[in-house]
Recover the amino acids of this structure.
């Protein structure tokens, strides 16, 4: 298990290097290494330090967060096609952005990142309140249904605000198309502490989630506090997916794809699946971002568009396989 994880981390390192080199203005390996550790204000230094380094770091952080959150959601709901959006994270964050723009006149990612996170937090809490009311044995199903219902209601509120205040759409549209190309490290600096707490919490939950996968009765007999484990898992998903969505906007399919790419190596063991999903999630985001820079003769495709182009066929194949298995 360790050697494949080391190999995955090495691939992530290569993807990060590629993210620094590839773009509208290519930078050679020698030039990148020279300006990376030197006080240089050449064109190559400006491209690497001011443009691609913040983009690469945010891409890595976003991929780690979404990959981990996806693995946690699939374990929590016992649903192999679950992703963080089931808890209403994306819908809540979107509404938070609009409230910031319309209600407080906030502009720019660094201004409304906290409003987006607050919206994600409120929506997740609401889904949990609805989804955990009742017999604990049906909690995973109720969470999915509650998330779908709350998400639909929040989307309706968002569309209503846009309809009443079309000017808000000008700011909102830049956030809703998820992207990691931010002009500086401010957003990543705001995001990183939440990511760190979420990663530590997620990794600590691995053994409890393994026991819970055997069923509530067996998990309880093994000493797992079922309600607490579910709540802490939800908190971890919020910290990871909420902060990533707030920082980079909605980026679909990463949380779905990463755990499925990890399972052929790790199996269902959450102690290994979680770190593998984090690394693979970061690789997926960086590779999608790199492809988005070169796929068009001029201009770029945002990373959320690239993950959707790759992730949608993956989702269809996954559904067909699950249906055939059933």
């Amino acid at each position: 298990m360790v050697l494949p994880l080391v190999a995955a981390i090495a691939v992530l390192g290569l993807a990060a290097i590629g993210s620094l080199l590839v773009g509208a203005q290519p930078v050679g390996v020698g030039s990148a290494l020279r300006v990376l550790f030197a006080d240089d204000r050449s064109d190559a230094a400006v491209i690497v330090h001011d443009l691609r380094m913040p983009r690469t770091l945010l891409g890595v952080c976003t991929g780690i967060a979404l990959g981990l959150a996806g693995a946690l959601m699939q374990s929590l709901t016992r649903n192999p096609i679950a992703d963080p959006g089931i808890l209403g994270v994306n819908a809540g964050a979107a509404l938070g952005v609009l409230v910031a723009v319309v209600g407080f006149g906030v502009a720019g990612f660094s201004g409304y990142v906290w409003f987006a996170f607050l919206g994600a937090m409120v929506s997740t809490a609401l889904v949990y309140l609805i989804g955990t009311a009742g017999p604990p044995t049906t909690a995973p199903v109720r969470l999915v249904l509650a998330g779908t219902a709350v998400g639909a209601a929040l989307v309706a509120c968002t569309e209503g605000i846009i309809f009443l205040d079309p000017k808000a759409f000008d700011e909102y549209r830049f956030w809703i198309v998820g992207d990691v190309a931010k002009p500086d490290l401010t957003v990543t600096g705001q995001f990183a502490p939440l990511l760190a707490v979420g990663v530590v919490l997620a990794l600590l939950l691995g053994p409890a989630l393994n026991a819970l996968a055997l069923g509530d009765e067996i998990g309880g007999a093994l000493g797992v506090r079922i309600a607490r484990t579910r709540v802490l898992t939800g908190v971890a998903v919020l910290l990871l997916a909420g902060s990533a969505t707030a920082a980079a906007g909605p980026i679909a399919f990463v949380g779905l794809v990463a755990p499925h790419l990890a399972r052929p190596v790790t199996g269902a063991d959450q102690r290994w699946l979680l770190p593998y999903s984090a690394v693979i999630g970061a690789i997926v985001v960086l590779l999608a971002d790199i492809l988005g820079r070169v796929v068009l003769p001029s201009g770029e495709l945002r990373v959320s568009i690239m993950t959707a182009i790759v992730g949608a066929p993956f989702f269809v194949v996954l559904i067909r396989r699950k249906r055939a298995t059933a």
